[in-house]
Amino acid sequence: MEDVIILGTGCAGLTAAIYTGRAQLNPLVLEGAQPGGQLTTTSEVENFPGFPEGIDGYTMMDNLRKQAARFGARYEHAKVDKIEIVDGVKKLYAGDKVLEAKTVIVATGARPRLLGIPGETEMFGGKGVTTCATCDGAFYRDMDVVVVGGGDSAAEEALFLTRFCSKVTLVHRRDELRASQIMSDRATSHDKIEMAWNSAPTEILADEKGFTRAIRVKDTQTGEEREIPCKGVFIAIGHIPNTDFVEGLLERDGDGYIVPELGSQVKTKYEGFFAAGDCVDHVYRQAITAAGMGCQAAIEAERWLAEQE
């Protein structure tokens, strides 16, 4: 039986691996479908402390992986389908394999909800299509960009981008935003934000070098199509937490995010069972906050194990 099994190799999971490794708990880290998490698709990370010149997202996650391995973390490629708790033992079912652990840290993250239109995948991550204005907005200084969405997140992304971009077009399929009134008012009244109402994206268009040059939208009322020239498309239609495998075991909110116990960011209702990062956090969703939660979960796991001895 393992002392610690960590699910996920994003910032939360690998930080938890570093801390539990240094505590000589010899953690087993299970990699899912996307080793390294969302940051591996980010061309450059400029807002993580300690990297004044920025760092490539893939390189950063590879560094974290090596750092955890240095302290004894072990890696196994497995996708957990179900978890059961029997007499305090956590049983993890991954295909035809069953793993047992005293403590578990779920750090499976979330995936951005995408549009599913042509050009989106081809230009995602470094070629003009992104899902994080906080991460990538500064790369579009003095450029025209598009934000797709109609909720608070889309309004916040659009407002944030006005700090850098010459013009922000907010594309929404309805004639009013779903955002809160205050966020809607701020976005629609900002002199750098132009609204594209009743507009459904149909394709993201590339230039001769494969970078974003425009987005094609269709009028939801007339059916007429037009192109909106832009250098970047920021998709802000929500995220999907990777938590289906804990359905019926852990409490989740209406969007699927794990709900921690009252008074804690990382504890769940089960002793020795923790959750961290973007599968819990639907507010900040930053590398640094995920890493912080991974640290908290690791320390809690270490303390809990010590109490059992």
From TrEMBL:
Binds 1 FAD per subunit. Pfam families: Pyr_redox_2. Its EC number is 1.8.1.9. Its cofactor is FAD. One of its GO terms (molecular function) is thioredoxin-disulfide reductase (NADPH) activity. SUPFAM superfamilies: FAD/NAD(P)-binding domain. It catalyses: [thioredoxin]-dithiol + NADP(+) = [thioredoxin]-disulfide + NADPH + H(+). Residues 3-294 form the FAD/NAD(P)-binding domain. Transmembrane segments: none annotated. Keywords: Disulfide bond, FAD, Flavoprotein, NADP, Oxidoreductase, Redox-active center. InterPro entries: FAD/NAD-bd_sf, FAD/NAD-binding_dom, Ferredoxin-NADP_redctase_2, Pyr_nucl-diS_OxRdtase_2_AS, Thioredox_Rdtase. Homodimer. PANTHER family: THIOREDOXIN REDUCTASE 1-RELATED-RELATED. Belongs to the class-II pyridine nucleotide-disulfide oxidoreductase family. This is Thioredoxin reductase. The gene is trxB.
